[in-house]
Amino acid sequence: MNKPSFILFIGIMLLAVAGPGFLSAQSPINGITRIYFGDVNGDGALDLIIGEMDLLRIYLNEGTPDSPEFGAIFYEMPVDGLFDRTCGAFFDIDLDGDLDLFFGNERGFVGYRRNTGTAASPSWSEVVYAATSSGTSFAGVNFIYGIWVLSFVDFDGDGDRDMVMNDQLGQMAYYKNQDRESDGWVDGQGATFVRITKNLPTTSCGGDSPKHHWCDVDGDGDFDLPVGTKYSGMGLYRNNGSPSNYSNFSGYLSWPYSLPAGTLVSVFMEDFDNDGFLDLYYSNQAGQFTYISAATRSSPNDTDPAPPNLGSSDLTVYDVESNAIILSWPVVFDNSDTGYRSGVKSYSLHRSTTGAGFTPDASNRIWKHYQSGHFPDYVPGFGPGGDKFKIEGDIYYFWDGGLAGGNTYYYKLVVEDYAHNSAGTDAVDYTLLPPEYDDVIVTLTPAMSTHQLTLTVTTVDQYGNPFAISPNPTTGDPNVTFTVYENGEPADYLLFDLDAQENFNSDTFNNVSSRTYHVTYRPTENCISFQVYVTAEHHVVGGPAISQTGSSSVATIDRVAPPLPGNLRAPAYEITMTSINVRWDAAIDGCTGTAYYNVYGKKAVNPDYTLLASPSGLLFSHSNLQIGTEYNYYVTAVDAVGLESPVNPEQDAISATTLSDIEPPTVPTGLTAVYDVGFTYITITWNLSYDALSGVSYYEVQKKLGDGGLWNTFQMVTHPNAFLIDYQSYPGYRIYYRVRAVDLFDNASGWSAEAFADRSADTTPPTVPQILTSEALSSSSIVITWSASADGESGLKLYRVYRDYSPTPIAETTSQTYTNTGLSPNTTYAYQVSAVDNANNESAKSAAVSVQTLPPEGQPNPPNNLRYTERNTDSIVLAWDPPTPNGTTIMNYRVYRHATMDSPPDAGTIVAIVTGTSATVTGLTHSTTYYFTATALSTASVESDHSTRISVSTKTLLPTIPDNLRATAVGGTWVELAWDASTPPPGSTIAQYDLAKMIANPWGESPYWIYNGPLLTFRYEGLTPNTEYKFKVRARDNAGRTSELSSPAVVVMTTQDDPTPPPVPANLAANPLSSISIRVSWDAVEDTGGSGLAGYELFMNGELYTTTTSIYHVVENLQPATTYSFQIQAADQAGNKSGLSDAVQAATFGLTEDLMCAHVASTADWKTRFTLVNIGEEAKPVVFYAFNAAGDLVEIRETDPLAPQAALDVDADAVFAPETLAQDIWVRISSESRLRGVLAFGTRDDESLVTIPMFARGASDLIFPYVVNTDIWYTGITLINTGADLVNPFIYAYTEKGEYLTSTVATIPANGKYVRLVDQMFEIEDPGRIRFLRVESSKALIGFEVFGSFADKGLAGLPAFSPTVELFKAEAKPEEKGDAPLTRPSRPTGFEGTAISSSEIYLSWNPNPEPDLKHYAVYSNDGPFPNLIATTTQTHYTRTGLSPQTTYRFSLQAVNQGDEESESTPTILVTTLAPGQQDYPYRVYYNEIPDRGFYDTGITFSNLGAETVMVHLSLYDAAGDLLAEEERPIAVLEQLTRYIENFFDNALPEGAAYLKVGATEKLLGFEMFWTADEIAAPFQFDGIIGVGSGATLHHFPLVKTGAEWFSRLRLTNIAATENSFTIEAFAADGTLLGTTTDIIPPLGKYDEGLEVIFPDIIDTIAWIQVESDHQLIGDLFYFSADLTRLSAYIGLRGSAE
Q1: Residue 1105 belongs to what H/E stretch?
Q2: In angstroms, what CA-CA distances link 1622 with 725, 1625, 1638, 1646?
Q3: Are 1131 and 1062 in contact (CB under 8 A)?
Q4: How far apart are CA 964 and CA 905, in angstroms?
Q5: Do residues 829 and 848 lie in contact, with contact meaning Cβ atoms separated by under 8 Å?
Q6: How much is the average pLDDT of 983-1009?
Q7: Which of 100, 301, 359, 1678 has the fewest CB atoms within 10 Å, counting from its CB?
Q8: Torsion of CA 578, 581, 582, 588, to 10 degrees
Q9: Is the bond preceding 646 in cis, omega lying within 30 degrees of 0?
């Protein structure tokens, strides 16, 4: 056969010749078939994979590479019953030389089956990803509209192939392969895929279920994107960039070559017949397959006789590392001199040791790389530690590793195009030194053992390869000796060989490089730590002996079990009715140490003990026990090698008995019984009783009728419910009630005082009337009638009529009919009626009826089919159809413009009145959406209702084309170009100019971009002398809109002169002098070209600022607190310029609301780390300002721009100079974008860590919540004055009970720092009594406290609290620097709401600073417009009368004495509670309750209110269920500090997830957690602030992952409704790595490790963000793998904007 054929045997197959040159076939399933090709069996011919409904099959090419023929089914993938359309793709993901199988399905998942066979005999049996769910989808892909085409292509030009897919709608998704990013090389070992969402080649390939494909259509070296569509045949998105510039694709183009008409829905292009042109296979909508030869040939005369552009010297030896040679060469493009270029097909690298004249062929090929990826690369040397390659900056690099020393290696590169033209390089060579004996490697494992260890000895050369050594050939004496060392000194004992059963200290290696021994040491002795030194000699015939010595790590043999733990006990004060705490003293194992303890226990009546737990600490809490029951326990110790203490349970066990309960609960108080308004039921309530032991179980409620009645039990009510409803009514009687409490042991309290409900008078309302008729009489009146009501006692008095559910009647009447007048036309009204008797008892309202008034006479119908017919930048043409006729005559039409799609119709503005059915609306703004309706006006001047509302957007303005592109100077290898500025559209600015060199191609010219930046000049270098070049330029504004390219192109001919520029000036420096000036200086340069130096050009912010002959310049008239960028270049008299230096930045002095870091230290033992995230929308530099304690600015450092969503994680000693860090500094961090950040402070070994949020602002009222001063504990505080004036704050000290002790006054200079230990601050006899501090200042301060242990490295830190200011929450940025200040009040901050019952919401906010503040205005935002509901001078407001479990929206404004209103706060959403539930206006949530097997938790809370208050403690599990409740009284300024379990009978319920503390006064709280074993080192602890409110956006800038650390995310839903949330994970460069969405139940908690949330990307996550529908409390807890190091911080709550 001389043409390819396509034969498919799939069930019953029809074959038909479709025309000359190709064969056609049809699928057995009539549907869209997806096709893909790859060489799966390594024979050089492309094989076929098809995907259809419930089908994925592979057909081998049984023909030849030149004449394909697809025969029987080679492989059919099991689909496990999935009824999905599939699409297949091949990709050698692990670079082992064979193609792996990937597939996508309509559920949006990607599957992966690894090829475990070979290139010649593939096997896809290993299922890596099954693609049955999002959890089994490769790379976490979950494409909502399914995957219709899947492909792998190196679209970013870095060497590894990326993944691309499109869905049914044609939307594209791109996943970058991170193989090169994982270790800098492409080797198949680090292939992971991360989705990118910015700078995409194209976001869509069109609708109608298209199928995309990647190939180099025009042979220019980059991948283009052909697409097939259902209706329009085939199209093309042309790549106008380069191999590494993948975001410059054209729009959709019609296919530039001839094609038959029809549907081409699945396309694939490759040179199947090896004629130098890409051929096309495609399938259509009917499932038919078709082949078209030479689909890229545009003319019969097209040929490609020219080889690729590879220079003979392009291959170079780039570097050598040990025995690896690194080669490099540029990316090769096919030659286009002949007009048609077929494109580069492959690269082949060849190696020989025979000499430079070797001929490259298959025998010496070490690597072959196919551009398309349809053939597997030839990679015999790849694998862990083997060969690898990469493309970087359009340069190939190849690592040829594992070479043998002593050889000269010669390399040649061959590049072949599709037309079989090849080009090769000359040989390059490198000689590796001969291998020499270099070292001996000794390993002794394991590190600890009871007896046997494995000793391995390996001799190696200088490259790390095994090197066989030999003994003395004359004597044959042993040449390897073994010496045992103990405590760093040679020991007197020998190793014992367990295999030979003898001691030994030598061996003979005769042409041997490695041996393994099974050994022990001092077999009868215990606890020996030793290491083995091995000296190995290699004897060279005729040369000196070479001796090398190596040593193992220290190993320990431990043959004796540890002793039993002493002082085993169960303290009586730690025994409850359901729990027993078992404690013991540490068992000291003098050898390998005690690793953990085994706790065994049983009921005393049971015969056998069971293992209960294996804690590492000295405490075991046994819970969920039976009341009044005896238990037995014993404890053993287990050392590091697994030996367990011997034990005799009969002698060594202890017993303990849980408590019983014989005490009754307290008597219930406060009993009330109250009828409802209609006397239909009685509500009985009482105060809860208290039982100190077993707890209250239920309440018994009794009642009696009248004074002489008998008591009868009415109902049992389960505690903690304290109310009951009696749904009976007792007319003419008093009904009495009483209640008593009963505990779990049936102990009953006494009866409560009696309460009664009285209805001895007439309290029975009349019967409910029913509306009989309702009728609209006119456009303004309605009449209703109703049935008569009856009253059996005092008699009927009147009827009340209600309208539209108002609580106030519109009329009272004794009649049974009512006419309502004065109504609006064409409006619906609802009516209800009630009856009232002579005792003023009112019945319930009747069922509502709705009636609509008649329309006004002569009203026309509204216009039909309102639409736009033309859009311009400042006008829109609208048209409509006449109204449906109803007998009225139309006089004219009115066009209305509306504010939103949902704003009220009568709020619109008339913009046109016309008599025809079209109108032009002018005076509009470009790029803006407008909303319109139309009405008709009759000749009777009656207006119709509004038409259907439509939205229309005006067209977008583009920047003007830059004018006057010109060459201002030309040299032999360079040209300087300049152009005039573009004019941006109104409201935008020109962001950059794009300058292009125009490159000729078969279709004309395409731009090659050479400059993208803000300047109006550019010097282009690296040109060829005496050569013509063409250039064009365009403008781009800050909205991303681009102008057209300038035209015509500027033509420049380079000269043959000597353009030697002067060198770039060195040591450019910029230093701020004041708030408005910066001094810039640089080193002088000399011109070497002979013309002499003309001077220097100083650039500021990318624009030329001045020219000077001096070597410094003072730049003045700048803005305060603003960062400026400077560059310098030198120019000579001939016009040559050195080029711009690297930019340096400096910021003028000034004060900004940025991030503050109060405690920064860097020493040999301590470190500080800044972790920042840019949550803004622009890439901006980050500026670090370091101030010393005196307030002096000692250093400024500016980073490169930090991209949006990118993270910066850097140590302080990488930011500031050592002399800066030697001072006592604090740091302000500034950026023009919005930052969130945390500060990590601790020891350099991470054994002590403190993580706190960076401060967003200060406060004048601060509280340091926890102070401890003892012989082993200390507390230190830091205060930072961020203002411009000196301050003298007062610092007050209080006891734990809130009693005032003493005070002091501090002095802090402007921008200064105050640091003291608490016991050094006050002249007080016993500083140990101080438990917390309060600070009052005239200016805002930043506060931070740290407390730790003198005995070890234990350390914790907390920020100071403010009762009035939210110190960490991101509020709106202030107005831009330099803007005029606003006269109206600032927007209130800290606005938040709390539901405190089913009908009440408590709103609170921070006070405003303005002295002329009048009041605050509270708005409801539940309607289309904000509705003012209250004004108040307080900073809180309670909204009442609300409905249960309903979400309400509120906003707030501040108003000054001149009635100027502030900007409104963002709207907050608050959901009321369910009926019967209640909460408190002030709350503190303690979100961290770590695993108590490893950590203990303590909490502190203080009363900041004005009176003693009862605080309510509620403990919840993760499902939101209430586990336990307690109450405690707390006085003003009193502090309660306890282990968390102390508040709940010393036993936390199983599943406890978080604690909520509520009160009617303001609370302050924090919690601490520490490793449970307080004696074992290292003892670690940290603290985290308690949070009183939640947020819907949280940022977590610091995530610690890897083998050593784990990070755990904890989110608590404080809303009484389900809360959906999304977690987004970002890489350090801002790339969105992955997302996940989940739901937290009402009041529930989400607690999960990041390695579980994002298992595939965990090692690349830099930070995470959480967004939720309702308010959450969030924090992140990270800890080391050995559980000995820990820290946590609260989630940084983002701005609501």
Answers
A1: strand 1103-1108
A2: 42, 10, 7, 12
A3: yes
A4: 52
A5: no
A6: 83
A7: 301
A8: 160
A9: no
**β-pair partners for 325:** 320, 400
Where does 167-265 show beta strands of DSSP type E? Answer: 172-177, 193-196, 211-212, 225-228, 234-239, 249-254
**For the chain, how many residues are written?**
1697
Give the phi and the psi of residue 1041 in degrees, each rounded to 5: -85, 135
% of the chain beyond a pLDDT of 90: 36
Q: Residue 489 burial by CB count (10 A; 0-12/13-18/19+): exposed, middle or buried?
A: exposed
Q: Please say if the pLDDT value at position 1656 is more than 50.
A: yes
Please tell me the distance from the alpha carbon of residue 1235 to that of residue 1255, in angstroms, as a whole number. 11
pLDDT band at 29 (very low <50, low <70, confident <90, very high): very low
Q: Provide long-range contacts, Cβ within 8 A and 24+ apart, for 1633-1642.
A: 1633/194, 1633/195, 1633/1657, 1633/1660, 1633/1661, 1634/140, 1634/194, 1634/195, 1640/1520, 1640/1611, 1640/1612, 1640/1613, 1640/1672, 1641/1519, 1641/1520, 1641/1613, 1642/1520, 1642/1613, 1642/1615, 1642/1616, 1642/1617, 1642/1618
Question: What is the rounded CA–CA span in Å between residue 156 and residue 245?
Answer: 7
In the structure encoding, which two tokens stand for residue 355, read together? 């000499």
Residue 849 carries which side chain, given as an amino acid letter? V
The tally of CA atoms less than 13 A away on the side-chain side of residue 888 is: 24
- The pLDDT value given to residue 1055: 67
1579 has pLDDT over 60:
no
Report the C-alpha gap between 547 and 545 in whole angstroms.
Answer: 6
DSSP-based three-state secondary structure for 1221: helix
CA distance 904 to 790: 44
- Can you read off the two tokens belonging to residue 728? 């009976």
Neighbours of 140 (CB within 10 A): 22
Q: What is the DSSP letter of 652?
A: H
Q: What is the mean pLDDT of the chain?
A: 85
DSSP string, 1358-1381: EEPB-SS--SSS--PPPSPTTSPP
Annotate 1679-1697 with three-state secondary structure. Answer: EECCCCCEEEEECEECCCC
By the 8 A CB rule, do 831 and 848 touch? yes
- Compute φ and ψ for 1608, nearest 5 degrees: -125, 130
Alpha-carbon gap, residue 757 to 1016, rounded angstroms? 89
pLDDT digits (tens, 9 = 90+) for 143-164: 878 888 999 999 888 999 999 9
d(CA 714, CA 733): 17
**Does residue 1024 contact residue 257 with C-beta atoms inside 8 Å?**
no
Task: Give Cβ neighbours of residue 1219 (< 8 Å, ≥ 6 apart).
Answer: none
**pLDDT reading at 17 higher than 60:** no
pLDDT for the residue 1152: 43
pLDDT bracket for residue 8 (50, 70, 90): very low
In our burial notation (b when 16+ CB lie closer than 10 A, e otherwise), range 1658-1676 reads bebbbbbbbbbbbbbbbbb
Distance CA 960, CA 926 (A): 15
Whole-model pTM: value is 0.43
Residue 912 near residue 897 (C-beta atoms within 8 A): no
Q: Contact at 8 Å (CB) between 364 and 350?
A: yes
Q: Which structure tokens are listed for 1157?
A: 């870091």
Alpha carbons within 13 angstroms on the beta-carbon side of residue 750 total 5
Determine the Cα–Cα distance for residues 788 and 769; give it in Å rounded to an integer. Answer: 6
Ramachandran category for residue 519: left, alpha or beta (phi over 0 → left; psi -120 to 50 → alpha): beta
Cis peptide bond N-terminal to 1002, omega within 30:
no
Q: How far apart are CA 684 and CA 735, in angstroms?
A: 11
Q: How many C-beta atoms lie closer than 10 Å to residue 356's C-beta?
A: 13
